[in-house]
Specification:
By secondary structure, this protein is mainly alpha-helical. It contains 21 helices and eight strands. Helix 7 packs across helix 13 (311-335) and helix 14 runs antiparallel to helix 15. The relative contact order is 0.10.
């Protein structure tokens, strides 16, 4: 791996603080101004490494490394950094709560876009969106984990009081975000003869089978998923009864916000008013992937070990987990349908509303991998997804040279524009620009590489991630005020003229997520090669045999240099035997060194006997 996650994350920390902390005042907002998502992303640029990478922990000042302290020096010394972060988090949770009722605010704000020359209405600016729910869940869990670990470390009464206030605010926002996601889930049912049905079975039918056979086979593969919809009892997403009919197809996932007519969820949590929904009752790939990533944070080992969820949140998390499982199983079945070429390998992916994009293919690979990971997919299956990512990197001009006036550059600027259906009921039609392709591809590549057991394919994907990182490195802003952050696509693509001064927290946090993914790949156990394991065992057997011969010859008797050398050989062989299963390469190196010493000992013993 050419990218060094630790160094790059430290560099980003320095750049975040340099850009945000000016004249001892924290400045919120970047290229797109302030909103509930952007400010959370700005904080997560610091908190994601601090809560997900052990080397970046800040909760225990005595254990914080000098490199981390130096990167965050403008915040103060080792004992000042955590209190400073606590102050920023309290400011965030206060800002995005209604001042009169305390209800958490999840508005998309300045991230909402419309056609040139038209203004977004005040009612639209205040619309809640799944991106805010998901980002808030991740931020709230990171905050609660940070507070839980840090609280025993501080003796300052004011800090303790601030921690209790922050914890209460984070709990409320977490519960409200979970409820928002439960009310944004949707199941879109249609017949096989509808336009949506014809597009779906046309997409998944890679073998030219009759339409009726494709529909029957897909429903057969999804029969457990279809049956499980009866367990969706709170929030939105209750599948209609006619889903049981043999000509019905469907898709499930998350709309862009609370769907129209979504029921209010009864809860003991004081989350304030639950807003009426206006979003179309159909799923979007982008918001579905965003929601699933946030739900994975709910189910993470850190969340469980630190016991971050209260009893009511555990109930809500169980309801979200059901939707996670339904969505994962549906998209895994659709993406890998059939016995020949998979639908996801037929690039670009075509959605049921008849829109095609290589970006949608990237999102579907994310959903497919979640399914394969849960079902313990084989290396062959994961490798096929890896090949799709390589193809996508080439098509998106991340590892190949763009053509003159290349239309693929539109994937990066202005990005994929998602039409937010339902917003036209309260103002002009809004869209949501998505420009994350390169950062997301790097993150997903590391996710697949970490699941692979076959070393050659794993190495190929890590090389792909390194090449995408080279591309991302060129897109770093090189001048003030956003120096060291993202995104400056014109530096990587000659065909793009747009120049940016301010950083995009939307893009920068996705680069951070990719680097955190790279760091997790590094700390995973070393992959074992069966061939290398067999070689290591053969070498160990030979070394053990030669060592036993030396023992029989009495070389270990006494306290001379031969005896001491043989004692060292014994230690090396014991260590090699311990590592032979987990690290056969290291075991082989130790054994070869032991064999060399044994050969020298044998020669020395022969020379002594001849004299």
């Amino acid at each position: 791996m050419r990218v060094h996650p630790r160094q790059e994350l430290l560099s980003i920390w320095k750049a975040v603080v340099r850009n945000s902390l000016r004249n001892k005042t924290w400045e919120w907002g970047g290229r797109d101004g302030r909103n509930s998502i952007s400010d959370a992303e700005q904080l997560l640029c610091l908190l994601l490494p601090a809560t997900q990478v052990d080397a970046f922990r800040l909760e225990r000042p005595d254990e914080t490394s000098e490199a981390m302290i130096a990167a965050l020096r403008p915040m103060g010394g080792a004992t000042d950094i955590a209190p400073y972060l606590i102050g920023l988090l309290r400011e965030y949770f206060t800002t995005y709560s209604d001042k009169e009722t305390g209800t958490p605010v999840f508005a998309g704000g300045s991230y909402f876009k419309t056609r040139p020359g038209v203004e977004v209405t005040k009612e639209q600016v205040d619309l809640s969106i799944v991106d805010s729910y998901s980002t808030s869940m991740t931020l709230s869990l990171a905050t609660l984990g940070f507070v839980t670990v840090y609280e025993p470390e501080t003796q300052r009464e004011q800090v303790k009081a601030d921690l209790q206030d922050l914890k209460a605010r984070a709990q409320v926002r977490l519960s409200a975000a979970m409820i928002g996601l439960l009310r944004s889930f949707t199941v879109n049912v249609f017949t096989a003869d509808d336009e949506e049905g014809r597009i779906l079975y046309g997409t998944i039918n890679q073998s030219g089978l009759p339409a009726r056979a494709v529909v029957s086979q897909l429903r057969r593969e999804l029969r457990e998923t279809i049956a499980s919809f009866s367990n969706v009892t709170i929030g939105s997403g209750n599948a209609p009864e006619d889903l049981a009919q043999s000509d019905r197809l469907f898709e499930c996932g998350w709309s862009w916000g609370v769907v129209a007519n979504a029921p209010v969820i009864e809860t003991v949590e004081d989350v304030g008013r639950q807003p009426d929904g206006v979003a179309i009752d159909k799923p979007y790939l982008y918001f579905t992937v965003t929601a699933l990533d946030a739900i994975e944070d709910l189910q993470s080992e850190r969340t469980r070990i630190l016991n971050l969820l209260n009893e009511e949140q555990l109930r809500l998390a169980q309801a979200l987990q059901l939707r996670y499982d339904l969505t994962r199983s549906y998209w895994a079945a659709v993406a890998t349908f059939g016995t020949g070429r998979w639908p996801v390998e037929d690039i670009p992916w075509r959605t049921v509303d008849d829109v095609e994009s290589v970006y949608f293919t990237l999102l579907v690979t994310s959903l497919a991998v979640k399914g394969l990971a849960r079902e313990r997919g084989s290396d062959t299956e994961l490798s096929r997804i890896g090949d799709v990512l390589i193809n996508l990197a080439e098509r998106a001009r991340l590892i190949t040279r763009p053509l003159k006036d290349d239309p693929m550059l539109l994937l990066h600027v202005p990005g994929v524009l998602l039409n937010l259906e339902g917003t036209e009921t309260v103002g002009p039609p809004l869209h949501w620009p998505i420009t994350e392709f390169a950062a997301l591809l790097m993150q997903r590549t590391h996710a697949i590489a970490g699941l692979l057991g076959e070393s050659q394919k794993r190495s190929e994907l890590i090389d792909l991630a390194d090449r995408v990182w080279d591309h991302l490195g060129r897109r770093r802003i090189n001048d003030a005020p956003g120096q060291g952050l993202w995104d400056q696509p014109k530096s990587a693509f000659a065909g793009i003229d747009t120049h940016y001064d301010l950083p995009s927290w939307y893009y920068t946090v996705r680069v951070v997520q990719a680097l955190v993914g790279a760091a997790k790949t590094v700390v995973r156990p070393t992959l074992r090669s069966d061939a290398l394991h067999s070689l290591a065992l053969d070498l160990l057997n030979e070394a053990d045999h030669l060592f036993d011969k030396e023992l029989l010859a009495g070389s270990i008797d006494g306290r001379g240099p031969l005896s001491r050398e043989l004692q060292r050989v014994r230690a090396d062989l014991l260590r090699a035997r311990e590592l032979v299963s987990s690290r056969p390469g290291t075991s082989t190196a130790l054994t070869i060194e032991a064999l060399q010493k044994l050969d020298q000992l044998e020669n020395a013993r022969k020379n002594v006997s001849e004299d």
